[in-house]
Amino acid sequence: MIRKFLNVRMLMSFALFAGLLTSCDKTVNEELDPETNPIDGGRWITVAAAKMGDNPGDGNGGTLIYAINAEDAKDPTKSIAPFDNGFIVPSNRTARLQSSEDGNTIFNISYAGDTGGNYSKYTVNGGQDFALTGSEVSIAPYVGSAPRWIKLFDGDKTGAAVYVSTENQFDDNGTPNDETDDVYKRTEATMGIVTLDLENSVIKNFQEASIPLTTEEEALGYYISRIDMPTLNAAGNKLYIGARLSKVNPLTAEREDDYEILGSKTIVLDYPSLLNPTIITSTVGFGNTNGYRSINAFEYNGSVYQANQSDPEGSHILKIDANNEYDNSYDFNLDDALGIEGAYILAWRPTESGKAIIAYRHDGSADGVAGAQGYFALADLNTKTAQQITEIPYDIDFYLFQYQGFVVDGDDVFVTQAPVGKNGNIYIINTANGSVTKGAELVNVEGSHFIGAF
Questions:
Q1: I need a labelling partner for 315 at 20 to 30 A (CA). Which of 86, 130, 385, 434 fits?
Q2: Residue 21 pLDDT > 50
Q3: Residue 38 class from Cβ within 10 Å (0-12 exposed, 13-18 middle, 19+ buried)?
Q4: Mean per-residue pLDDT for 84-106?
Q5: Average pLDDT of 53-71?
């Protein structure tokens, strides 16, 4: 007989309901009033700021956003203060933000709290003027009140959110040496995925499925414990979902922290049906592919390029080809490219040319007030090379673990730089020639930090 013990509560309710969100005062900072700074052939740059909760850099005090046009974003004489003048994004903790490709719309799904799982979108009008647009919908009945979600690159039409629940399974028909009545068999991992129509604020599809590993891997206690960052392939008929593996001791069913890291894995689903999940495994990279708060995989030139984390040999950029399998001949190791050890890709974003900006830390990073010091690098997916961007100042408290957003505008990539609790600037990196321009000043407050541009 098999007995199951629930580790993570499964979601049982699939009813759809609408959530009512609140917005803050819409007064616009007069210095950068959109009435006097209209968009002319450019785009909005929305800066996101994470307010301190209990500890410096935790971002648990909420998220504020403020929009300026690209011309002002490039002007170092301009100064913006989102913590004083920003729009409060509905979210109990750090919001999970996405922007439209043209920068004119911000998408948000609230994270945790009473409004957790509520989807809303806003038209960007400049300054702190973000106008709630269309209806709202809750995806909490499908993927919980703290969903992991991402906007698919399909013309701003679809969002996808995921969760995984796990159950240890035991056999009580006797054990070696009769030391216990329970014998660990395996850990069942069940994935849930919902797709959301971003234009009309309605649920498109929802599916649940078991995502087992190989019999050999499960016998050793391995299981998929977290999933995130769904990404469409170039053909638009498969969805790739990043995964993190954990392990229990099969003799005791107790979780292990020190164990052999397996090859990086990705779940492959049919799209848009969300059916027929399979798992592919890299022999080049080892570690997790679920990322954290920033998009972790991107389609480029017919393939999907994916970062991994917690790789014993340092983070890799991995390649999944049009055949929906890892290309194990593609070996892009950030340790080797940068001449460092223990590289950990925190967030990254490629341009259409295959040049990419990477936010990372490494074993040599200083220990700042909120965690390991972060850096930016300019990488090339085609040549598998990278170099640190030295023109950006690096403070010991420059913390990028929660970094979420890069603005790609042609060859230019806009990033935010500010240590925890200190002022900084927007920087614009031209990925074609490597030049770096210092832009508008970012005014910070004690214990808080900036989490990107959208």
A1: 434
A2: no
A3: exposed
A4: 92
A5: 96
* Beta strands per DSSP E along 287-406: 297-300, 303-307, 316-320, 332-333, 344-350, 355-361, 375-380, 385-388
Cα distance between residue 298 and residue 320, in whole Å: 10
| Dist. CA 239–CA 324, nearest whole Å | 10
176 band by pLDDT with thresholds 50, 70 and 90: very low
User: Domain 2-453 belongs to what architecture?
Assistant: 8 Propeller (2.140)
Instruction: Give the pLDDT confidence of 181-228 residue by residue, as tens digits.
Output: 679 999 999 999 999 999 999 999 999 999 999 999 999 999 999 999
CA angle 437, 434, 78 (to 5 degrees): 10
Distance CA 427, CA 445 (A): 19
Stated as kind and residue range, the H or E segment containing 337 is helix 334-338
Within 13 Å and on the Cβ side, how many CA atoms surround 116? 16
Chain centroid offset of residue 54 CA: 23
Ramachandran region, residue 41 (left: φ > 0; alpha: ψ -120 to 50; beta: rest): left
Q: Answer yes or no: are the C-beta atoms of 197 and 166 closer than 8 Å.
A: no
pLDDT at 26: 30
Contact criterion met (CB below 8 Å) for 417 and 391: no
User: Residue ranges of the domains in the chain?
Assistant: 2-453
Give the separation between CA 423 and CA 436, rounded to whole angstroms. Answer: 19
Strands (DSSP E) contained in 128-237 are: 130-138, 148-151, 158-171, 183-197, 202-210, 222-232
Rg (CA), the chain: 22
The whole-angstrom separation of Cα 294 and Cα 129 is 24
Residue given tokens 């035991």 in the structure block: 170
Q: How many CB atoms lie within 10 A of CB 301?
A: 12
Residue 93 scores a pLDDT above 60: yes
- Reduced to 3 states (helix: H, G, I; strand: E, B; else coil), residue 219 is helix
| CA end-to-end span of the chain | 53
Q: Which one-letter amino acid corresponds to residue 328?
A: N
- Determine the Cα–Cα distance for residues 276 and 292; give it in Å rounded to an integer: 25
Tell me, what's the pLDDT at 179? 53
Q: How far apart are CA 65 and CA 51, in angstroms?
A: 11
Dist CA 241 CA 231 (whole Å):
7
High-pLDDT (> 90) share of the chain, %: 83
Q: Which of 23-27, 76-80, 263-267, 378-382 has the lowest mean pLDDT?
A: 23-27
**Measured CA distances, 411 to 430, 433, 454 (Å):** 6, 9, 16
How many Å apart are CA 376 and CA 369, to the nearest integer? 19
Element at 174 (helix H, strand E) = none
Nearest CA to 331 out of 376, 383, 296, 375 is that of 383
